[in-house]
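[job 0412] stage=complex_fold ligand=copper (II) ion status=START
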Amino acid sequence: MRFILALVAAMFLVACGSQQPQPSEPMVSGAWIRTAPPTAAVVAGYMTLSNPTNQAIKVIAASSDRFERVEFHHMRMEGSTMVMKQMESVDAPANQKAVLQPGEDHLMLIGPAQPVRTGERIMINLTVALEDGSEQQMPVTFLVRERAPQ
Ligand SMILES: [Cu+2]
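[job 0412] stage=complex_fold status=DONE, emitting structure tokens
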């Protein structure tokens, strides 16, 4: 009896698996913007860009109605000082991820039209360049929150 149940469970898993194929498109998950004081001139955005394809992809531009400008920044310690440097793109090699997270790479969202508020959802449009030279637009909803999603 136990064996039959296990077999049924296995068949069920197989059936579910075939209905939900692996994502074959680049995808963004866990997109969020850190809550900032109303006077903040810049805020930071974070996300994970998954690239399940066999070609490298790069986010080469980002824009949003809510901000004057969106840049890609890399953050690191120089001695005891935290230094931010602008990056040309966010790169996800074939079958890998690009992770933007606090203390490291991030989207620098410059000049908010209005202050960002906890719980608010903000759309940022990413321009993704594929290895073959084609580009695609990827609109991503960022959730404004106080800390990183678990
Ligand atoms: Cu920055």
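Residues 73, 84, 106, 108 surround copper (II) ion (CB under 6 Å).
[job 0412] exit 0
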